[in-house]
Each structure stands twice: as C-alpha cells, then as structure tokens.
C-alpha cells in the first residue's frame, strides 16, 4: 500500500468581510449593494407608514361614525393607527 500524503489545505475564496476590510473593488461593490438594499427597505417601510396614516385619516374623515367607535374604551382610529405602525 502506498503511503498517504497529507492533503494540502486549499484556501477557499476570500470572504466578504475580508473583501470589505481590504477595501478592494469587490468590497466596494458589496458595500454599495448593501447600502442600496437598506435604502430600498427604508423607503418601503416609510411608504407603509405613510399609507397607514392616510388610510386612518381617510376613514375618520369620510366615515364620521368611525371617529366615534370604541373598542375596549379605545378609539378605533387609534387602534387602526397602532396596527399600521
């Protein structure tokens, strides 16, 4: 039987954190991509918040009885606003 050789450790591709730490071109692209993703998420969350506020305002404005509804003593408009936030 032939003696077995120890396998050489083959270095895998560089990690994301190493690319960013070395400030390489690939790291810059990754950071820009991350920032774009975070901006898109912030815009979606802000849009949802504004939509919830507008829906609450329209419900109170166009359905006057809605402003008088109470659920467990809490105005329904407040509960709807809390659910939207």
Model description:
The chain is built from 3 helices and 2 strands. The chain is mainly alpha-helical. It has helices at 16-21, 25-62, 76-84, and strands spanning 70-71, 74-75.
Topology:
Layout: H1 16-21, H2 25-62, E1 70-71, E2 74-75, H3 76-84
Antiparallel strand pairs: 1-2
In DSSP terms, counting alpha (H) and pi (I) runs of 4 or more, how many helices?
Answer: 3
Low-confidence stretches: none
Give the class from helix and strand content and strand pairing: mainly alpha
Q: What order do the strands of the largest sheet run in, or round the barrel if closed?
A: 1-2
Mean pLDDT across residues: 79
Query: How widely separated are the two ends?
Result: 71 Å
Write the element-wise H/E pattern from the N-terminal end onward: HHEEH
Proportion of strand residues: under 5%
Shape: elongated
Which characteristics define this entry?
single chain, 85 residues, mainly alpha, 3 helices, 62% helix
What's this entry about, in short?
By secondary structure, the chain is mainly alpha-helical. The protein has 3 helices and 2 strands, in the order H-H-E-E-H. Strands 1-2 form a two-stranded antiparallel sheet.
């Amino acid at each position: 039987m032939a003696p077995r050789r120890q396998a050489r450790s083959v270095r895998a591709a560089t990690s994301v954190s190493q690319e960013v730490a070395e400030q390489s071109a690939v790291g810059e692209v990754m950071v820009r991509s991350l920032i774009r993703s975070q901006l898109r998420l912030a815009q979606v969350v802000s849009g949802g918040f504004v939509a919830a506020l507008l829906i609450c305002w329209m419900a109170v404005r166009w359905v006057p009885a809605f402003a008088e509804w109470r659920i467990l003593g809490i105005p329904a408009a407040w509960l709807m606003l809390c659910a939207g936030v």
